[in-house]
Design brief:
This protein has about 160 residues and is mainly alpha-helical. The protein folds into two domains: about 70 residues; about 90 residues, no CATH class. It is about 85% helix and about 0% strand. It is built from seven helices and no strands.
Length: about 160
């Protein structure tokens, strides 16, 4: 939902320009055109403010949900994040260290013994990285917060 709202916000200037052209075709008086264009810009600005507020409320609600989930003693409620994190970590460990070592050892054994042991599979780690970076907040935003001094750990110290 937030992506749709943000997309609508970025489309607002084009909408204003299009409606201003339409007003110019149907309203011959330049003063009336300017008044209608101003009213339309105010309306769009109000809609943009409402949309920005809605996006902020969605983010706040998600943050509250995340906090409640993380504090839950139930493994099925609060444990999904560690489960996914450990799963991604183990998958990346296999993709980055274990699989290459197994492939190297398999090649040596195959050459030395002239047998055909199949190579270990190479996992598709793109999905793992997408999930893991999303969970860890590795998009530059966390570093940006730390740089600005608005990281959660910094906020507690400033109170």
């Amino acid at each position: 939902m937030a992506a749709g709202i943000i997309g609508a916000l970025t489309a607002a200037p084009a909408v204003i320009e299009g409606i201003t052209r339409i007003i110019g075709r149907f309203v011959p008086d330049p003063a009336a055109q300017a008044q209608l264009a101003l009213e339309m810009q105010k309306l769009v600005a109000e809609r943009e403010a409402a949309a920005a507020t809605a996006v902020a409320e969605i983010a706040k609600a998600q943050a509250e949900t995340n906090t409640v989930e993380a504090q839950s003693p139930s493994l099925f409620i609060g444990g999904w994040r560690p489960f996914v994190g450990w799963g991604c970590g183990i998958g990346l460990l296999y993709a980055g260290l274990v699989q290459p070592l197994l492939a190297w050892l398999t090649g040596i054994v195959n050459a030395a013994l002239s047998i055909g042991i199949p190579m270990p599979p190479i996992p598709a780690s793109e999905a793992l990285m997408t999930v893991l970076t999303g969970m860890l907040g590795i998009a530059g935003l966390r570093s940006f917060d730390k740089l600005k001094g608005t990281a959660a750990s910094d906020l507690g110290a400033k109170r």
